[in-house]
């Protein structure tokens, strides 16, 4: 699954890999986002396409439509979201990208759970597939979004059996296009995913378990 991630670089560090400035309707902001411990229930910067331009909106991470009487959901399985009664409309019309530096997973070691930070070996940002209730620019009236997950493979299984669906920059653009159909999106999810061998991980401080803890030390390796 994906229940915590880091979004700490500047907007440009992420967006420059997705599109030229002419293809974005997003104000330039040189300040780092600086969120090393992003948790569900908070507003997260989400990229989506409207009128053939990329837009950036703060959207609540967690999807809970008006009729839903349980805690908001934060993940949707790529294997079933396209056909799920609850998620199919979002898959067809509410695809977006959540950019990040990497994500956290907890692995049981003895009597405790040790958090790990998983990121690309080359240090590049990651682009996690997301679906949500549009229009995203509704702000507080929006019903939120979910991060799409896939089965972990290869060595990533050692940490957790699920992982966020991380797309290549090219696949991420196709994923967001409004004229991409639901079936095409399924193909993008399958063919455009970044392979497990591109990722590495290291143990980090258990302080990440407290959502109030921020700072670069959260993602630094511990000895």
From TrEMBL:
Record-listed E.C. numbers: 3.4.-.-
Keyword terms, alphabetized: Covalent protein-DNA linkage, DNA damage, DNA-binding, Hydrolase, Lyase, Protease
Top-rank lineage group of the source organism: Bacteria
Source species: Citrobacter cronae
Keyword DNA-binding set for record: yes
GO-annotated molecular function: lyase activity; peptidase activity; single-stranded DNA binding
Top EC class of this enzyme: hydrolase
PANTHER family: ABASIC SITE PROCESSING PROTEIN HMCES, DC12-RELATED
Pfam families named among the record's database cross-references: SRAP
Alphabetized InterPro entries for the sequence: SRAP, SRAP-like
Family, per entry: Belongs to the SOS response-associated peptidase family.
Name this polypeptide is given: Abasic site processing protein
Any one GO biological process: protein-DNA covalent cross-linking repair
